[in-house]
Write a structure and sequence with these properties.
The complex is a heterodimer of chains A (258) and B (324).
Chain A lengths: L6 E10 L2 E11 L4 E5 L6 H8 L7 E6 L2 E2 L5 H6 L2 E3 L12 H10 L6 H6 L2 H21 L14 H13 L5 E5 L7 H16 L4 E4 L3 H7 L2 E6 L2 E6 L1 H5 L2 H8 L6
Parallel strand pairs in A: 3-8, 3-9, 6-7, 7-8
Antiparallel strand pairs in A: 1-2, 1-4, 4-5, 9-10
Chain B lengths: L4 H11 L8 H26 L6 H18 L4 H24 L4 H21 L1 H4 L12 E2 L2 E2 L3 H24 L1 H11 L1 H6 L4 H27 L9 H14 L4 H17 L7 H15 L3 H17 L5 H4 L3
Classes of the chains: A alpha/beta (258), B mainly alpha (324).
Organism (chain A): Roseomonas acroporae
Pfam families (chain A): ABC_tran, BCA_ABC_TP_C
InterPro entries (chain A): AAA+_ATPase, ABC_AA/LPS_Transport, ABC_transporter-like_ATP-bd, ABC_transporter-like_CS, BCA_ABC_TP_C, P-loop_NTPase
Chain lengths: 258, 324
Amino acid sequence: MNGAPLLRLEGVRKSFRGVHAVTDASFAVARGSITGLIGPNGSGKSTTIDCLSGFQRPDAGRVLLDGQDITGLPAHLVARAGLRRSFQQVRLFDALSLRDNLMQAAQAADGVGWLGAVLRSPALRRAELAAAERAWLLLDQIGLTRLAESPAGALSYGQKKLAALAAALMPRPRLVVLDEPMAGVNPSRIVEVEAILRRLNAAGETFLIVEHNVDCIMRLCHEVVVFEQGRTLTSGPPAMVRDDPRVLEAYLGVPAAA
Amino acid sequence: MLRHLPPLLALLAAALLPALGASPYVLGIGITACIFTVGAASLNLIYGYAGLLSFAHLAFWGIGGYCTALGAVSLGIGFWGGLALAGLLNAALAVLVGIPALRLNRHSFVIVTLSFSLLTALVARDWVAVTGGPLGIPGLPAPELFGLSLRSPPRFYWLALAFAALSLALLRAVTTSRIGRTLKALRQNEPLAQAQGIAPTPYKLLAFAISAALCGMAGGMQVFYMQVVDPLILDFYYFQTFLVMMIVGGAGHFWAVVIAGIVMTVLPELLRATAELRMVIYGALLLFAMVAMPGGVAGALESWRDARRRATAERPDPVTAAAS
């Protein structure tokens, strides 16, 4: 967790027709950490995620991934730079099998072109073999091996969330951004998902997690960033953030002195 | 290699048709089946896989026809040169039309491609100096191979069969590659594909260009079969035929569309026995197919198989299922 941060946002701003969704998003994600992003509804978390993953172009500010300026790059180039994200409304290719979903997730990262794909070049076969191995490993880690050949659309909601996580991990990204991984997951299973994330983190994955479930964030994260009204309110270790009177105020709407 | 066996056997059987004493009438149906199946299969690549409904294929078909004819008649590059030019020109046109048409959304794509076909029909009729206007270019020479004329029905049939086999092989290679999977992925969930590093437009343009090239070359085959090219090559009838073949077969299902292309060329001929009722019966069959099988024959088979699988599947695992 030492050294320069893996992801850094500096003064990112985004408005939609005069609505200031994000006025100043500035925070960092340390390499090897699980960093949480919390804040009341409408505090600009989702817009910030869209800005750093290339789905929205920031009006101002900078996004640096491992020192590389990725501000305003389209989503597919952000992904190729090594940042993978999941979506709040879980997204999968419903008609493709779970296994094909994972294979598809890896393909843009392996450098095999169209001609190689049509002619089934040796490089393609090597890449697909490596991807298939990784897919099995990840399916094993999320416990969905036996559903590998099912269409993704036939999975339960919780299974889809795990599948989306595995898909994001397929190309060995530098950073995985998860947009509300616990939303809609049965409360009794949240601890299991937490365990999966912790295990992956121990194996070297860096996570940035947007989540409404504050308890889960406090348990899971090394560092917590708090958003309020479109800007970064504070950030720090969970214990520190929890006791910050400004955070209480942001969530409960009462003055800290009261 | 075993998976290549059934189509190769079918190809072999089809190639033996003239040797089995098939009449020119039967061979004519075979030629039409070969050419139309390529048209339907090319439409299947852009609509069935990439999810883009292209009305420009009528234009590509017509431009391919004119281009091949002009290659042989005016440019002196012969039938083969004309056919190759038809493929290249249509691929280039597809990219030119596709770039603006894909900038907006899937609906605007339909409108832009439709306009392109309507404009092409006007040009074919009014650019008399090149297209010959309403009279067209009659008396197209027979294609030749190593000095051998390919005019006789068996020879032209073999030419059409070889053309169809090569075209379908190319389409099959593309659709079964991960390009085909990516096209399906883009149709299902474009933002997810983008989040996985896929740039949508180049993939769609590639599918559009390959599809246009093959449809245009099929048009070239068609006009040399008819030995004339005139504005009727841009009749909506052709596009409608390809569309119906693709939809009844099952858009996005490779072999289903190929089989539908063959069956739906042969079927109207079989109904010739009842001259007056022919098109009524054909229309009723189409209507029935659409109402009973909105996903085409292949779609219906697939949902039936899925339903059976679901019925026999074990109960989902409680750990992961409970999350729903």
